[in-house]
Design a protein that fits this description.
Elements lengths: L12 H6 L4 H10 L8 H14 L35 H11 L7 H8 L8 H13 L10 H12 L5 H12 L7 H11 L1
Helix pairs in contact: 2-3, 7-8, 8-9
Length: 194
């Protein structure tokens, strides 16, 4: 079994792709090599792949910085406030908690609004309604960047009596070997060991 190499500027793209990396490891690598550290884990990985293959930085697409744009939450948010510059921030959280209760959590439905351009045709009242519907129709799939969450769900589905500690040990094992990080990959890893 191959051991996971340290992530350095000499790591091949092939090795980078074969192993699991924590987002924090990707951020540390980016900082060390003066690469931008913002964005999702997938964006960081793409930056690193580019750097490892070319030795250079990806050209960033120039878009208006979210910090230079007034957020909807800079003013008081009401049910009638148009959704234009939505952010998942403290003031927006306070609005949603006031509307739906302490159990409120930002979810996939709301995170999508922070990533897209909103034209103001929707209101925060529409978002509250959409949030409620999103809870009723809970998403059954997990986005690819949440590998551990998917692994954990699959592990417990196939091992209902096993503890969280057992799941964590299985995860630690599969992420250290080359290849994917799915529950199926874990089963192959266990089969190879015998």
């Amino acid at each position: 079994m191959d051991e996971r190499p340290a992530l350095t500027k000499h790591t091949s793209v092939t090795d980078f792709n074969r192993f699991y990396w924590l987002k924090q490891e990707l951020i540390v690598f980016c900082r060390h090599h003066q690469l931008p550290v913002g964005g999702s884990k997938a964006e960081l990985a793409e930056r690193i792949r580019y750097y490892l293959s070319t030795g250079g930085q990806m050209v960033a697409h120039k878009n208006q910085s979210s910090r230079s744009v007034a957020r909807d939450s800079d003013a008081s948010i009401t049910l009638e406030t148009p959704v234009v510059h939505y952010r998942n921030d403290t003031k927006t959280r306070a609005f949603f908690v006031a509307q739906v209760g302490k159990q409120f959590r930002f979810n996939h439905y709301l995170r999508a609004f922070a990533q897209q351009i909103n034209d103001g045709r929707m209101t925060y009242g529409d978002l509250v309604s959409g949030y409620g519907h999103s809870l009723e129709n809970k998403k059954t799939t997990i986005d690819p960047q949440f590998e551990y969450n998917q692994f954990q769900r699959d592990f417990h589905k196939h091992n209902p009596g096993k503890s969280h500690t057992a799941c964590l040990a299985a995860w630690q094992r599969v992420k250290k070997v080359p290849g994917g990080n799915t529950y199926q990959d874990y089963l192959h890893c266990v089969d190879r060991k015998g």
